[in-house]
Amino acid sequence: MKQGGGPGLRGPSTVPQGGTISVEVATNDTTVEVSSAGSATTSHGVNPDKTARIPVPPVPPSTLLFVSVGTGVGAQVIVVEVLGRG
Amino acid sequence: MKGLPPREVSEPSACRRQFLRAAGALIGSSVVGAGCRTLGSPQQEPQAHLEPIRTSPPPPTGNAELDELRRLAVIAPLPELVELHPLFLMLRDRHYRDDEVLWQGVGRLAMAAIGEERLPLRRQIAGLTAASIDHGDPPPALGLQGLLPPLRRNAR
């Protein structure tokens, strides 16, 4: 699975509907935030091993999710596309 | 039965140039304030979206994060905005949905995704800007709703 991101946050570039987004967090952030255009932002805890497993929110296929750690212009962001289950 | 003569089809590139001129005029005509370069002139180049919209920074807001995003939106060279587009679009969507200056940055990215075939991450930028426009409330004067059909085509 193609990985996206940079040194602070790594994760997949696509994920199936109903699946799980697995990310690796290299910073000291304890939460990962997920949102899509127009939606509310949800927060998910980072495990002690600096990974997080985030359930894909109930969005249509082809939705592009922002997955981030950190705040402000220093935040690390990856974009994850939700694929249809078919 | 006699066959019909072939229908003339205009060059795709000519149609695209006309579209970009019209869209650029719509976006550029909303720019106001000192130090702004108007993009909506009749001599508008089809690649005007490659240039910054302003030549001087917008007035400071007192919010350093917003000021930096506004700089990216209208001052920064397009390659810089493209490189930082996930951060820009995410922060705009999460915290500054109604900021008109940031909507101009969305417009720059959208125009680039439509007009620049070799734009890095073109499909992603097209998808993200389309989603921003679709789920947001862009200023009508920017004409961003009119960019949705070509953005959706480029996002496939």
Commentary on this structure:
The complex is a heterodimer of chains A (86) and B (156). With 86 residues, chain A is mainly beta. Chain A has strands at 3-5, 9-12, 14-16, 20-25, 31-36, 42-45, 51-55, 64-69, 76-83. A five-stranded mixed beta sheet of chain A has the order 3-9-8-5-6, with no helix packed on it. The mean pLDDT of chain A is 93. Chain B is mainly α. Chain B has seven helices and no strands. Chain B has helices at 12-28, 64-74, 78-83, 85-95, 100-115, 122-135, 148-155. The longest helix of chain B is centred in the N-terminal third of the chain and has 17 residues, at 12-28. Chain A binds chain B through residues 35-39, 41, 62-64, 66, 68, 72-73, 75, 77-79, 81, and chain B through 65, 68-69, 86-87, 89-91, 93-94, 124, 127-128, 131-132, 134-136, 155.
Write the layout of secondary structure elements.
The complex is a heterodimer of chains A (86) and B (156).
Chain A: E1 3-5, E2 9-12, E3 14-16, E4 20-25, E5 31-36, E6 42-45, E7 51-55, E8 64-69, E9 76-83
Chain B: H1 12-28, H2 64-74, H3 78-83, H4 85-95, H5 100-115, H6 122-135, H7 148-155
Helix pairs in contact in B: 1-5, 2-5, 4-6, 5-6, 6-7
Short description:
Chain A is mostly beta strands.
Major beta sheet, strand line-up of chain A:
3-9-8-5-6
What is the N-to-C order of secondary-structure elements of chain B (H for helix, E for strand)? Answer: HHHHHHH
- Rounded to the nearest angstrom, the distance between the terminal CA atoms of chain B is 41 Å
The 3D shape of chain A can be described as globular
Shape of chain B: globular
Supply database-style keywords:
heterodimer; A: 86 residues; mainly beta; five-stranded mixed beta sheet; four-stranded antiparallel beta sheet; 9 strands; 52% strand; B: 156 residues; mainly alpha; 7 helices
